[in-house]
Amino acid sequence: xxxxxxxxxxxxEALVWRMLxxxxxxxxxxxxxxxxxxxxxHEWPEYWKARPMIVVxxxxxxxxxxxxxxxxxxxxxxxxKLLGIILSLFGCLIILWLGSVYGxxxxxxx
Length: 110
What we know:
Layout: H1 5-10, H2 13-35, H3 50-69, H4 71-74, H5 79-104
């Protein structure tokens, strides 16, 4: 199936790189938390590390996609550009935080 014009405009190389960057940031971020646990609680599941190591990079990729889609606002001039930058960074932090909370729910986030 050939890609449509909408597909070509939405799924750009910049989107892929920003999503990969967001996933890498999420992976590095959660790795510090997971590796820092020396004595996990005996009530936690045996493979408790798998959930945050999967969920947080996925939400990091979603944050990267959000950052890319906010480029429409950031490329405007003046106050809209500043608003776009602020919303992009704030939105990415919120998405990554929510992913971390969900990934660590029931273990480190009680």
